[in-house]
């Protein structure tokens, strides 16, 4: 990457060749020498192994595996690797070998497309059709789980990006969840006037820098957001400029936490009343529970209003996936479990564990705050939008996320940030299309 933040066109293919060579070498080493992880993926009667990068979900997999076993005869055996970089490398190195696990947790969208492009995944089109016939998946989301028309992933969960807020603080200050942009600004002004930071905004860990960008762009113009992430619009176009100006205005007014504010402190900050609103995925409801906060009493949540009342309503959705390696040691068991994963009896248990919504639209969350959001989304026929992290080629998203982090830290202006993002988009979309060809 050059000093300007622009990805070199010449360096792209070379970097990709080196990466693929490294993956091939690593896979050969694992296959030849074996390793503890390879041994743990060996077939074990009555179970299917899951490669997982979130160890806090291990108990949830085991719990959901109980009703799953009643249907298929196979429980779930999570194998966790909490290091994101290490996890991705291990999955990519073992995917086409006998060392692969039976099921792999992965991201949807272009993250899945890149994995599928390398080969080694099972076609899950039949499973998807069965789910669609039962009404257990949303037809509009199929592309996020497919590559070149073939389905390779089954939804693991579905979360929505919303603003959690402190109900005691709002009640004390005479505020209610805002239903319009003007009401949102009023809430922020009142909170700030009373010594409370209105919004949590963070870049700790890198990826959180996308949250306010995707929300402000989509609530400015959701159709533009779709074109932008598909490479059919420019980051320097007017809707993106307007969104970045709003973001900068919020920061200048002191309405946002410093960018080094760790999101892990979010639930505690709401509980203490030092922060009024926290933009995050609905999966954060589990974090609220861990902070001993009761839904509907200690916290509520709402979807960010549109900047203009005439703008179409939308919602940013995030969904992980299960994929099945074609060389999984217990391939038949893995296929049985993905074919039953969205069964309501399984999803009821899984959704309760996550305190979140289910990927099966017929399963309502037992968390009353999340359930109310589900009703809101269905009632308003909100346009579903893929989370920014999965919505474009991964190398483009990673670089642009770094630029957004720099903007949050005050290193670049909105115009400079968007120009760099567009330069990278030009190069990375061209590289993606070359690789596709």
TrEMBL record:
Pfam families reported in the protein's UniProt record: SBP_bac_1
Region of interest (Disordered), residue spans: 35-58
PANTHER family associated with the record: ARABINOSE-BINDING PROTEIN-RELATED, BLR3389 PROTEIN
InterPro entries cross-referenced by the UniProt entry: Bact_solute-bd_prot1, SBP, TAT_signal
Gene3D superfamilies, per the entry: Periplasmic binding protein-like II
Name of the protein: Extracellular solute-binding protein
PROSITE patterns on file: PROKAR_LIPOPROTEIN, TAT
């Amino acid at each position: 990457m050059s000093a300007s933040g622009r990805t070199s066109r010449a360096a792209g293919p070379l970097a990709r060749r080196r990466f693929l060579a490294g993956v091939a070498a690593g896979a050969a080493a694992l296959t030849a020498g074996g390793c503890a992880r390879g041994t743990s993926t060996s077939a074990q009667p009555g179970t299917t192994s899951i490669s997982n990068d979130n160890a806090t979900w291990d108990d949830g997999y085991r719990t959901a595996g109980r009703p799953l076993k009643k249907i298929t005869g196979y429980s779930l055996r999570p194998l966790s690797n909490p290091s994101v970089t290490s996890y991705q490398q291990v999955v990519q190195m073992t995917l086409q070998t006998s060392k692969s696990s039976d099921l792999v947790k992965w991201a949807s969208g272009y993250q899945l497309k890149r994995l599928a492009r390398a080969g080694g995944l099972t076609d899950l089109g039949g499973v998807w059709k069965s789910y669609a016939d039962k009404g257990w998946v949303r037809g509009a989301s199929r592309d996020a789980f497919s590559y070149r028309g073939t389905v390779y992933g089954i939804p693991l969960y579905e979360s929505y990006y919303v603003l959690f807020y402190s109900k005691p603080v709002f009640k004390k200050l005479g505020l209610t969840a805002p239903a319009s942009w003007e009401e949102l600004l009023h809430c922020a002004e009142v909170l700030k006037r009373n010594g409370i930071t209105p919004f949590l905004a963070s870049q700790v860990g890198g990826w959180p820098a996308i949250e306010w960008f995707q929300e402000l762009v989509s609530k400015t113009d959701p159709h533009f957001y779709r074109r932008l992430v598909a490479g059919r619009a420019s980051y320097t176009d007017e809707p993106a400029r307007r969104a970045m100006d709003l973001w900068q205005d919020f920061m200048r007014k002191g309405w946002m936490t410093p960018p080094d504010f760790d999101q892990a402190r979010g639930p505690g900050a709401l509980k203490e009343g030092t922060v009024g609103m926290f933009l995050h995925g609905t999966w954060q409801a589990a974090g609220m529970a861990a902070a001993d906060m009761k839904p509907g009493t200690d916290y509520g949540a709402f979807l960010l209003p549109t900047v203009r009342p005439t703008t179409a309503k939308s919602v940013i959705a995030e969904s992980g996936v299960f994929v099945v390696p074609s060389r999984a040691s217990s391939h038949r068991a893995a296929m049985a479990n993905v074919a039953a994963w969205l069964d309501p009896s399984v999803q009821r248990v899984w959704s309760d564990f996550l305190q979140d919504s289910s990927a099966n639209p017929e399963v309502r969350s037992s968390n009353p705050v999340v359930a109310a959001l589900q009703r809101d989304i269905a009632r308003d026929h909100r346009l579903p939008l893929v989370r920014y992290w999965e919505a474009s080629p991964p190398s483009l998203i990673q670089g642009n996320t770094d630029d957004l982090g720099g903007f949050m830290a005050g290193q670049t202006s909105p115009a400079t940030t968007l120009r760099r993002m567009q330069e990278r988009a030009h190069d990375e979309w061209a590289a993606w299309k070359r690789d596709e060809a």
